[in-house]
Prior knowledge:
This protein has helices at residues 14-20, 29-44, 61-86, 92-113, 131-135, 138-148, 155-160, 179-184, 190-204, 215-219, 225-233, and strands at 5-11, 47-53, 121-122, 259-260. It is mostly helical. α6 packs across α11 (225-233) and α9 (190-204) runs antiparallel to α11 (225-233).
Amino acid sequence: MVPTLKVTVFSDSTTAIQRAQNTQPGRGQAMAIENVKLHNRLAGMGIQVVYRWVPSHEGVEGNEKADEEAKAGALEQGRVKAIAERYKGMSLANIQRRVTEAKWTETEAWWKAKPNKKAVYRMNRKRKMAAEASAARKSIASRYLQLKVGHGLTAVYLERIKKKESQECWWCQHKKQTRDHLFKWCKKWKRQQDVLWEKLKVKCKWKEGRTKVPMSQVFDTDEAVKPVLEFLADTDMGRVTGERVREGDDDAEVEEGGSSSGDE
């Protein structure tokens, strides 16, 4: 094919120009092979690629820009090598823990600097899962964590993710089945709710009852963990009755985070 377009590649390195066109074994071979493949592909499209040397540090605009990019790339490569050296010999679990700690540090700094904290999120005082929740049966611990972060199987949540057409409580037919409704007002679980809130008043030393204490506060209080777990064990809270929304929903793994106060 007769070339219809000519593209010129400028470089101040004769070594780079020679290497880009030579696929012989040696340093840079992999990149040279890819370059030749691209060169041939462009030739098949009628595009001729030629290479030209230009002197360095002579004020050639494109070359100066390329030099800046090369330096930035070298600095980034050095940063990556430094990070790799820092984590050399560590297990994957150890690295993941350090990444999680760094993430939480950044999140806490963001939260402290946030001008408006009247959002639907409550920062945890502690990042580790409460011992009682860790020791609980997996199905109960999963329901606890799902309800804590606002992803529990309530009608409001399922309607939001398009798994249900109604927000109505499937136990008492109240028009809106929220987390707040299930833990405080659902008629199906009135006896268990009364027991739960008596325990919370004693354990957490709260003067206010269910009408004043938000569920986000309950899930963010260490002393409330055991009473809540016992409440879940004594009820079907966090489960769907009469139908399975999705196989495995009840036992889904949820990463611990802050307590959601949305759809209380």
